[in-house]
Amino acid sequence: MYTKLCRTLARVCMWLGIFGLVAVICAVSWQVFGRYVMNNTPTWAESLALLLVLYVTMFGVAVGVRDAGHIGLESFLVLAPDWLRLKMEYLIHFLVLIFGATMAWNCASLAESVWDYRLPTLWISEGWKYVPAAISGVLIVMFSIEHIIALAQGREVEPAWS
Fold this sequence. Notes:
Radius of gyration: 19 Å
Largest sheet: 2 strands, antiparallel
Mean pLDDT: 92
Number of domains: 1
Shape: elongated
Strand content: under 5%
Low-confidence stretches: none
Number of strands: 2
């Protein structure tokens, strides 16, 4: 049940990433069109593209953690004896979990602290710049827990698109 929830969340993040990339392309294209064809640069396009890149990147990072695409110490794991390898895998997932929790907490705190400020070109709260990292941190925690459960059950987490 938990694995199904995590897989669904990872797929949603991947779809949001795809839509976000399309939106980034549209915003940048509109900015280029406005600058070079209409001779009137839309000031909001660059800010929107930068904000969307944050969302795409953070959701992609979370999915990368779930699909074990993050930077790992594979060479040490391969060289380690079996009894140590399992302990090292638990440690790696636990450290990633701690990182995700710290990221979620601090980015949520940062978003709250700047929520009253506005991005001048988009007229939205500056806190929206930190929301994707907070969400990503929560997802990283969830996906790390999924990996720890899978290790305890002697299985691997299947990628979101399998």
